[in-house]
Design goal:
about 300 residues; globular; 7-stranded parallel β-sheet; alpha/beta; disordered N terminus; 7 strands
Length: about 300
């Protein structure tokens, strides 16, 4: 397999021989995380941490510059009566909206991410995917969220998937690359582990569960499998890889369980938005409601928070 475009100093494994995943063991481990109680002080710290790890996202055919600017405002001002709240980590848009988003968040510290490579299907020639990526970077994207070719992967064409990721990584330039596995289409945890390994060896800066368009998306079982792959990759290569569960994480309780899982699997080095993200826009409002409940003793109506 050619690796001249990827992490060329690494000795590539035989991806057809990726480790098998103990599904029962994963279920038992995840069950323990879900039963973990979190004290109030740690809960508030975790909620603010989760807010700062969210990629606010709008990926609809009806997106307009006005809608993107509204989302970018929310990214920087999550709740105006609570000015000490952090911003979210990033806003995520289609390539055509990157320029609008980049202007709207300039100087705020909020990153601009763009989906790429014929998102969400990935069904396009490599030349189109490269053009898609280069356009987004030229418009001001700090991060690229690409989708892998699931059809090629499921057909056993692992070299094709590897080389495509490596080519997109090269096209990213200085932008960080998040590789979306679309785990809902990969069917098994063994496939999730194999796709994670391919993405990391090919040059991914992050591995990401899903597009948010396919169900199931970011189950804790899938996320835990990917976290274990990241841990093993760090032990083998010394390279730290980020993680982004996306899709289906809509409430604070699930977000906090994910953070506990990250800390116990990978350690505190991953508990920053440089290395861990949530791809879940609806999560922001639930976290805000929980924070206000903890501080005031009552829930605010969802009407107090913008939907975008």
């Amino acid at each position: 397999m050619s690796n001249k475009k990827g992490r060329s100093h690494l000795i590539l494994p035989d991806f057809s021989q990726s480790p098998c995943v103990d599904k029962v063991g994963v279920e038992e481990r995840v069950s323990r995380f879900q039963k973990r109680s979190i004290k109030n002080e740690a809960k508030m710290q975790g909620l603010k941490m989760a807010l700062n790890m969210i990629d606010l996202t709008t990926l609809e055919g009806k997106d307009t510059p006005g809608k993107v600017r509204q989302m970018c405002y929310k990214a920087q001002h999550l709740h105006d009566i609570h000015p000490d709240l952090p911003t979210v980590a990033a806003v995520c848009v289609y390539p055509s909206m990157v320029g609008v988003a980049a202007k709207a968040v300039a100087g705020s510290g909020v990153k601009v991410a763009s989906v790429s490579t014929a998102f969400p299907s990935g069904q396009a020639p490599l030349e189109v995917k490269l053009m898609d990526t280069k356009f987004a970077v030229a418009e001001g994207a700090d991060e690229i969220d690409m989708v892998i070719s699931r059809g090629k992967f499921l057909s056993g064409e692992y070299n094709f998937v590897f080389d495509e990721i490596a080519a997109i990584k090269e096209a990213c330039g200085k932008a960080r690359l998040k590789v979306i596995l679309e785990t809902g289409e990969l069917v098994t945890l063994d496939n999730v582990r194999r796709a994670s390994d391919i993405a990391m060896f090919a040059g991914a800066d992050f591995i990401k569960t899903s597009t948010g368009k396919i169900s199931p998306a970011a189950t804790m079982q899938v996320t835990y499998t990917m976290l274990e792959a990241i841990r093993d990759f760090k032990l083998k290569t010394g390279i730290q890889i980020g993680m982004k569960p996306a899709g289906g994480i809509s409430n604070s309780k699930l977000a906090l369980h994910n953070l506990v899982m990250v800390k116990e699997t990978l350690g505190e080095d991953w508990l920053t938005n440089e290395w861990f993200r949530f791809g879940a826009s609806s999560l922001a409002n639930d976290v805000l409601m929980q924070i206000m409940k903890a501080e005031t003793g009552v829930y605010q109506s969802a009407d107090y928070f913008s939907k975008d």
